[in-house]
Please model this.
Amino acid sequence: MSNKIRLLPSQLVNRIAAGEVIESPASALKEIVENSLDAGAKNILIELESGGKQSIKVVDDGHGMSKQEISYALQRHATSKMPNDNLYKILYFGFRGEALPAIGSVSKLTLISRDQDENHGWIIVLQNGELGKLKPSALDKGTIVKIDDLFHKFPARLKFLKTEKNEAEKCYNVIKKLAISKPEVSFEMRSSGKIVFDYKACINPNMLAKRKERLSLILGETFHNEAVSLNFKNDEINLTGMISLPTMNRSSSNNIYLFVKNRPIVDKKLIYAIRIAYGDMLPKGRYPVAALFIETSDENVDVNVHPAKSEVRFRNLHKVTSFIINSIKIALHNNSNKSTRESGNNAIRYFSNNNNLFSKSLVKNSNFDQKGFFNDSPPKTNEVFNEDIIELDFPLGAPKAQLHKTYVLSETKNGICIVDQHAAHERLVMEEMKKEIVDGKVSTQTLLMPEIIKLSKDQLESILRFSSELEVFGLHIESFGNDEVLVRETPAILGEINTELLLKNIAEELLDFEGSSIIEKKINEVIATMACHNSVRAGRKLNSDEMSSLLRKMENTPSSGQCNHGRPTFIELSINDLERLFGRK
Ligand code: ADP
Ligand code: MG
Model:
């Protein structure tokens, strides 16, 4: 080595820190707004230009900084947030004292601030590491931070930035997370002069109520109205929050908001735990909407493990994940017959947005002729099904008609329900099978003629490897010759099925199973595969007794709000919804 060891100049050190802490406008914004919150701000205004690429401005009404503090603030490792030098007792979002100098080393950072005790504010500029002069400036209160031209002098970083829209979106997300964590603070976000959101401060003194109010603004009213609340505690952890019904799900985990000690964090393992807890109630590759708040004492969690402070390390991760899984399972179980109104609401939105289109198609479509629609005689359904007032009191109501051999239409006390009979039945079969398996009494049907089924080498291996487990499910299989199996018995509940197709699907399901700890999940998938093969009620005409029995069974079956693929089994429209649809309201 020819170069001598030396201490790096501070400008370079700051740039190295920026490499870790600041990777986009959103990460710079996060640091600035965290500072505002740490300074006790109650109102925060954020303005972006070009998705933050051109400029980010944050105005707060916090306690501000004195002249002396301002010059310290721009130096590395200068912080007011570690009064006791204890990295395990962190009371603020910040503690590393490196954000401002790091940002100022890769942009033009302007800082204006005023301490309550001073007559005016002070302004200073740190441009690509060059510190300007401290000058007096007019300012009423608090702090203004402006970041211009982030990375403009650093093409290697600039080129990794996404489109303006994309970067803006990331900025909104950063603020949404902080807004959930601090519902008592108002946040206004503007982008290129337009207001994107304006969350007013929630004044309810109760933290849970405040959070709920803020979540309803950020995650929507439907979520707020029907989400399942969590409130669980063990010796180490206090878990609160709200999670969506399984039928309200999304294609990514972006709508799962996690907070540890009220700090927004990212944690793949916790997201995985949540996913496991939903189990077969969610379709493959889908995620719930959720906000979870984990409280634990200082010694159980280390927050100083990530430069952007967005990850934490739990002393006992396993304990945390299993507590989350169990809590969510219990909460979902207690609400398992419910289905989201999201689809109903979407339908209303769709119809209201397509009002013209809808009425045009009514005129054109010959099925909707005058006779069918404005007929004076009472609808046929009333003749066929004698109305049972008592049934109206059940959650899924009294069945009125079957449509297209697929949907059961029922009248409830406050509206109507449309049930997808096939999806519902599939779920009922699955839950029934699970119950039989748990009780250890799966009833089987012996095939008159054992079926011989030819499988590929892989399929054969996986099926035989699990043959004793499958026997517990009521599927009796023996190896037969080189590449065949013999099936003697199948689960009675499935009725008459295509055994070959069932076996092949199960084999495929088991193929990617590597004996990991998620055996329970796999078993559920196998049961789901089996239940799917029961086609008794698919496209079948049901009489009124059968329809009633289907609805009553659904009400008494856990998880009946969604089919085995996580789609809703029924959609509910209230009288109010119907009135809105028909423009009566
Ligand atoms: P940290 O937040 O880790 O302390 P920063 O570099 O982000 O480090 O900020 C340095 C210091 O500047 C903070 O400790 C705080 O004292 C002060 N500061 C930064 N922003 C503000 C603000 N908006 N209002 C009041 N003080 C601020
Ligand atoms: Mg900070």
Residues 189 and 195 are 6 Å apart (CA to CA).
